[in-house]
Amino acid sequence: MRRIALVTLVVDDYDEAIRFYTEALGFRLAADEPRPDGSRWVVVETGAANHGTGLLLARAKSDAQRGRIGDQTGGRVGFFLHTDDFTRDHARMVAAGVTFLEEPRHEPYGSVAVFQDLYGNRWDLLQPAG
Q1: What are the backbone angles phi and psi of residue 98, rounded to the nearest 5°?
Q2: Sign of dihedral through CA atoms 80, 81, 87, 90?
Q3: Cα distance between residue 10 and residue 15, in whole Å
Q4: CB 60 within 8 A of CB 68
Q5: DSSP for the chain, written as a single string
Q6: pTM for the structure as a whole
Q7: What is each CA distance from 36 to 40, 50, 54, 59, in whole angstroms?
Q8: pLDDT digits (tens, 9 = 90+) for 46-73
Protein backbone atom coordinates (compact mmCIF):
# COMPACT_ATOMS: atom_id res chain seq x y z
CA MET A 1 0.00 0.00 0.00
CA ARG A 2 1.35 3.39 -0.96
CA ARG A 3 -1.17 5.95 0.32
CA ILE A 4 -4.81 6.67 1.01
CA ALA A 5 -5.97 8.22 -2.26
CA LEU A 6 -9.44 9.56 -1.36
CA VAL A 7 -11.60 10.22 1.67
CA THR A 8 -15.32 10.76 1.15
CA LEU A 9 -16.89 13.90 2.55
CA VAL A 10 -20.69 13.95 2.43
CA VAL A 11 -21.96 17.33 1.20
CA ASP A 12 -25.30 18.96 0.52
CA ASP A 13 -24.48 20.57 -2.83
CA TYR A 14 -21.63 19.89 -5.26
CA ASP A 15 -21.11 23.43 -6.54
CA GLU A 16 -21.30 25.01 -3.09
CA ALA A 17 -18.74 22.52 -1.79
CA ILE A 18 -16.44 23.02 -4.78
CA ARG A 19 -16.50 26.79 -4.24
CA PHE A 20 -15.66 26.45 -0.55
CA TYR A 21 -12.82 23.98 -0.94
CA THR A 22 -11.25 25.70 -3.95
CA GLU A 23 -11.83 29.36 -3.09
CA ALA A 24 -11.76 29.47 0.72
CA LEU A 25 -9.32 26.63 1.39
CA GLY A 26 -7.23 26.83 -1.78
CA PHE A 27 -7.70 23.25 -2.97
CA ARG A 28 -7.71 22.52 -6.67
CA LEU A 29 -10.54 20.81 -8.52
CA ALA A 30 -9.07 17.51 -9.74
CA ALA A 31 -12.24 15.95 -11.18
CA ASP A 32 -15.86 16.88 -11.82
CA GLU A 33 -17.46 14.22 -13.98
CA PRO A 34 -21.14 13.37 -14.42
CA ARG A 35 -22.23 9.86 -13.49
CA PRO A 36 -25.04 7.87 -15.18
CA ASP A 37 -27.23 8.07 -12.04
CA GLY A 38 -27.22 11.90 -12.06
CA SER A 39 -24.56 12.23 -9.39
CA ARG A 40 -21.06 13.58 -10.06
CA TRP A 41 -17.55 12.31 -9.32
CA VAL A 42 -16.06 15.41 -7.67
CA VAL A 43 -12.53 15.35 -6.25
CA VAL A 44 -10.61 18.24 -4.72
CA GLU A 45 -6.94 18.04 -3.78
CA THR A 46 -4.23 20.13 -2.24
CA GLY A 47 -0.96 20.49 -4.09
CA ALA A 48 0.06 18.55 -7.16
CA ALA A 49 -2.00 15.72 -8.61
CA ASN A 50 -1.63 12.36 -6.90
CA HIS A 51 0.68 13.67 -4.17
CA GLY A 52 -1.67 13.48 -1.21
CA THR A 53 -5.10 12.44 -0.12
CA GLY A 54 -7.97 13.93 -2.10
CA LEU A 55 -11.49 14.58 -0.93
CA LEU A 56 -14.32 12.92 -2.82
CA LEU A 57 -17.22 15.35 -2.41
CA ALA A 58 -20.26 13.08 -2.39
CA ARG A 59 -23.75 14.60 -2.36
CA ALA A 60 -25.99 12.95 0.20
CA LYS A 61 -28.58 10.62 -1.35
CA SER A 62 -30.66 9.61 1.66
CA ASP A 63 -31.97 11.01 4.93
CA ALA A 64 -29.35 8.98 6.82
CA GLN A 65 -26.57 10.51 4.72
CA ARG A 66 -28.04 14.02 5.02
CA GLY A 67 -28.01 13.54 8.79
CA ARG A 68 -24.23 13.07 8.66
CA ILE A 69 -23.46 16.27 6.77
CA GLY A 70 -21.30 18.42 9.00
CA ASP A 71 -20.97 15.78 11.71
CA GLN A 72 -19.06 12.97 10.10
CA THR A 73 -16.83 12.51 13.15
CA GLY A 74 -19.24 13.15 16.01
CA GLY A 75 -18.01 16.69 16.68
CA ARG A 76 -14.30 15.78 16.84
CA VAL A 77 -11.66 17.27 14.59
CA GLY A 78 -11.68 14.78 11.76
CA PHE A 79 -9.49 16.42 9.14
CA PHE A 80 -6.00 17.87 9.30
CA LEU A 81 -4.77 20.43 6.79
CA HIS A 82 -1.00 20.87 6.97
CA THR A 83 0.67 24.10 5.88
CA ASP A 84 4.23 25.31 5.54
CA ASP A 85 3.20 28.88 6.49
CA PHE A 86 0.55 28.99 9.20
CA THR A 87 0.35 32.80 9.42
CA ARG A 88 -0.12 33.23 5.66
CA ASP A 89 -2.74 30.51 5.28
CA HIS A 90 -4.64 31.45 8.44
CA ALA A 91 -4.89 35.07 7.27
CA ARG A 92 -5.96 34.03 3.76
CA MET A 93 -8.62 31.69 5.12
CA VAL A 94 -9.98 34.31 7.56
CA ALA A 95 -10.18 36.82 4.69
CA ALA A 96 -12.08 34.20 2.64
CA GLY A 97 -14.67 33.87 5.42
CA VAL A 98 -13.56 30.57 6.97
CA THR A 99 -14.84 30.25 10.55
CA PHE A 100 -12.14 29.52 13.10
CA LEU A 101 -13.38 28.15 16.42
CA GLU A 102 -10.35 29.31 18.38
CA GLU A 103 -7.42 31.66 18.24
CA PRO A 104 -4.19 30.22 16.83
CA ARG A 105 -2.06 28.49 19.43
CA HIS A 106 1.51 27.29 19.48
CA GLU A 107 2.01 23.80 20.84
CA PRO A 108 5.17 21.68 21.05
CA TYR A 109 3.98 19.84 17.90
CA GLY A 110 3.34 23.05 15.91
CA SER A 111 1.06 26.02 15.27
CA VAL A 112 -2.60 25.07 15.12
CA ALA A 113 -6.16 26.40 15.04
CA VAL A 114 -9.45 24.56 14.65
CA PHE A 115 -11.78 25.72 11.89
CA GLN A 116 -14.99 24.39 10.44
CA ASP A 117 -15.90 23.82 6.85
CA LEU A 118 -19.10 25.20 5.35
CA TYR A 119 -21.08 22.29 6.82
CA GLY A 120 -19.59 22.34 10.33
CA ASN A 121 -17.00 19.54 10.07
CA ARG A 122 -14.03 20.38 12.25
CA TRP A 123 -10.53 20.67 10.82
CA ASP A 124 -7.10 21.53 12.19
CA LEU A 125 -4.99 24.00 10.25
CA LEU A 126 -1.56 22.84 11.35
CA GLN A 127 2.02 23.83 10.68
CA PRO A 128 4.04 21.01 12.22
CA ALA A 129 7.02 22.00 14.34
CA GLY A 130 10.49 21.49 12.95
Answers
A1: -70, 135
A2: negative
A3: 13
A4: yes
A5: -----EEEEEES-HHHHHHIIIIIS--EEEEEEE-TTS-EEEEEESSSTTSS-EEEEEE--SHHHHTTTT-TTTTSEEEEEE-S-HHHHHHHHHHTT-EESS--EEETTEEEEEEE-TT--EEEEEEE--
A6: 0.91
A7: 9, 25, 22, 15
A8: 976 667 789 999 999 999 999 999 999 9
